[in-house]
Amino acid sequence: MRFLRFLFPLLLSITWILLLHNPVGSLPALGKLFDPVKGFWSNAEPAQKVPATLTIPGDGRGNGASVILDDRLVPHISAVNDERLYFAQGYLHAYYRLWQMDMQTRAAAGRLSEVIGESTLSFDRNQRRKGMVWAAENSLRAMLADERTKKILDAYTSGVNAYIGQLTYKDYPLEYKLMGFEPEPWTNLKCALLLKYMADDLTGTVDDINMSYLKEILSPQELDFLYPDKIEGSQPVIPSGTTFGKPSLPVPQMPYGSVFAQFKPAIQQAAGSMKYTTAEEQSGIGSNNWAVSGEMTKEGAAILCNDPHLSLTLPSIWYELQMTAPGINCYGVSIPGAPGIIIGFNDSISWGVTNNYRDVMDFYEIVTEDPRLYFFDGKEIPFNERYEKVYIKGRKEPYTDTVRFTLHGPLMYDEHFPEPSGSGKKLAVSWMAHKATNELLAVYLYNRATGYSSFVQAIHHFECPAQNFLFADRQGNIAIWGQGRFINKWKDQGKYVMRGDISATLWGDTIPMNENPHVYNPERGFLASANQNVTDASYPYWYNGDFSEFRSWIIHHELGYIFKTRNDTAHKDTTSTYTPASLYSKDGLIFPYLLQPASEKVPDIQKNMNLQNSTFSLLNASLKYNPVIANALQALPDSLVRDGENLSAESQAATFYQVFWRYLYRNIWSDEFKNLPVTLYPSPERTLQLLKDTSLNYFDDKTTEGKETLADIVYKSVQQAIDTLSRLRQQGTTEWYKVKNTTIRHMARLNAFSYPYIKNGGWGNTVNAVKSDHGPSWRMIVSMQPERVKAFVVYPGGQSGNPGSPFYASFLNSWTEGKYYEVDFKERR
Prior knowledge:
The structure is a single chain. By secondary structure, the protein is an alpha+beta fold. The strands form seven sheets. A nine-stranded mixed β-sheet has the order 1-2-7-8-9-10-18-19-21, with helices on one face. Strands 4, 5, 22, 25, 26, 27 and 28 form a seven-stranded antiparallel β-sheet that branches. A four-stranded mixed β-sheet has the order 16-17-11-20, covered by helices on one side. A hairpin with a 2-residue loop joins β7 (319-325) and β8. It is globular and about 80 Å long. It starts with a helix and ends in a 7-residue tail after the last strand.
């Protein structure tokens, strides 16, 4: 008995020691984590005044860089040359955002399993098989081949590693301690990976497979009717009527014969396992930007506005700073992990971006009988193989995935990694991001651009992801480019999965950069892009993409009065003569009667702020003007339907309209495609247009007896919405912000470091496109005044990535309330 009394405490002590000093499963070593000196307690930062400066380590040749911190913790870097400037930026990024940089590049490279475990193995394999690392390696070679980008990459990486090299466990960001791993040295490849991660986020989702299923059950006429390349009434990025030059390349004709993969057998195989994707669910994942020329503004200066819509995360996607050195004085936001400023302004110009959404990723069906060979033009060609080792936390041996490469690109889906819809097809992917592009050179050059010509030369190096680059300068000029590297395609090339065994489907020549659609100082005096179609039908080259229109229609209306005042004298009041119909009848805006004339004729900073924060829904407003819907809504309480087009945070009417539309949209389309394993509903814009014709057979629910009308579906949807609202009322959650539950989530999905139920309005169909996890990631308004640049900015987060810092989410309240910070832009001395 005495022996047992001795043995039990001894075993317990040994167990406790092992638990404290060694990780168990997904848990870190708890002893280190709870260490009162070096553990997580050390990450708490006192709410004290921001230090005036931050010291950047020297490089043996003198420091050469100084950093002044303002009261928002925004650094203003001043350096003697490029090397010290980018060394300082790398050091600052690591100082405030190291864990974020580490995790994003691990995600890009398919290395999350190393620190998370087997739950992320499928994600990691998907990234490897998509060709993310291969693409980054290709681009890194291009970056290192250019003297300028090699210099800044080397300096930036040295800066990051200078910070990492001085860390002890006590200094590790909190997430490293919670997850039980440590920082590793930074490399130039990680910078390339981060840029490919951006490309993946903005171009990595395509509809080729969904459209291939639809092609099997719909006639060409039905496809064009329901899924038009250009929707009626679109206000394109490049204004209608813009003259495009004669194309230097012949527009290719569609090849004769069968060029697309056949998906009909897959429909029969996968019936009953439907996974629906709807355009409505994707709506609002994009961005807004617009610019007004200096002739049209109250202060006589061009105004440029930008609010890119991305994932709402903490730490924030962006890091705000100013960078000054010989040849550069630039302010804006950077992406931690990459050199330079992505969106912002300098002494001479300002710029903003929105996603272009032209299709730059295509899938090919690969035919193979021997796993070593695939067929192409009647011959068998050997695959090139790449062995991807995925290391997994808790496992001794890595998972080795063999990725086979074709002349189209990597074989992403095969028998070892099946295509998600269940088609069983082997699909290779061709993606512009696979090319050896050097977007870093574009950023380096446009940060230093002094005017329109140098800006255009700079952005021509920006190939993927394709972006709508907006420009304004201190002389009042404005311009926009639909910029990227694009293939000269024949009609429908890449719209559906193509045959990979014939040369007729190969990508052809790329369109010359100077023939990308663009306009400089348009007649109407303003420019705007919001992920809508890029051009009207007069552009000579064919393209397809995933475009949305609602936000564009609203922005064009709000800015459209300038088109009228430009033809009048001295900006005189034209309220009595201006009507939306007179403005838009030429271009065929589909809902002109819903928009009231703008009350003010000359935009200023505040009016642009109001527009960025607008929660007006043209979709919801349009529903009331459909006679069938209006008749069904008459029986409802006025409080439920009045002002439902304004998606303000506390509105119950907004909740009703959004819920009603969701039911109506799905009730119209769900039965039409019920036998497909995956499908894509027609866009909300197209659906709303079709509601005008009550005789269309799409309103007949094929799953019920008898012929249903639009009225039947509307009344059914209204009742479903009322029932849902009743359930929400019982839960006390009828306010719109509670229903949509916008949450700024920590990247590791740690609830303690996240902010749920953000009290703001909006949705994907409003300019303020705040959804549950996507929204305006950076709001910027810049007035390019001749005497000085004046800018106002905000983003949903804070400068520090440390959850224990008072600057972790210090901007969040201002962002939620639609407030801005005036930028402290330090002029060049």
